[in-house]
C-alpha cells in the first residue's frame, strides 16, 4: 500500500524525538523531511525575532543560490513576509500572482532553477525562532494543500524539538556551573544518589581523602557527609 505524505511526515516527527541539542535537530530535518514533502530545495533558518537577521542556516541547496537569496531575495519575499506576520505556513501559489511574480525572492529562486516556494514558521517559547523553506522547479506543480498541512506539522514538531533541546542545553549549562561552584568549596563534598552511588566529588574530596567505594560503586555512608539526589 502506498504511504501517504502524512505517514512520511510522522516518520520525521519520530526522528525528531531522538534529538537532544539544537545542533542535532537539523540533521533529521534535512535527511528525512523530503520523504514527506517533495521539494528540490530545503532549508532551515534561524532568524532574530526583531531584526529579521539570519543567525544560522542549514540547507540542501548550493551556496551560490543561498547567496543570491540573501543578497536581494530575503528583503523582498512575500512568502516570508506572510509567515512572519501571520505565523502560519504559506506557499507562493496562494499569494496574489503579481506580488510573487515581481518579487526579488522569485528572481533569486529562478537563478537556482526554482519557481514555487513554501515556508512555515518555527515558534519557540511563543517567539518566532526561524523558518523552514521549500522550493520546487518550474517543471513541477505548485505545493498542494497536503504539502502545506505537512509543512505545518513539521514546523510544529520541529519547534517543539528545538525548545526541548534549548531547555536541555540550559540544564546542562546549569549543572556545569553548579559543579564548578561546588568544586571550589574548600570542604570535601560528595554527591550521591539514594543508593549511595557517587555522582560527583569535588576537588577537596578528591585531594584530601577517598570515600570508601564498594564493588557496586556505593560509598560507605557512615563515613561521609553527602548531598543526596534522585
From TrEMBL:
Residues 21-172 form the GAF domain. InterPro entries: GAF, GAF-like_dom_sf, PAS-like_dom_sf. SMART domains: GAF. It comes from the Bacteria. Pfam families: GAF (PF01590). Coiled coil: none annotated. This is GAF domain-containing protein. It comes from Rhodococcus opacus.
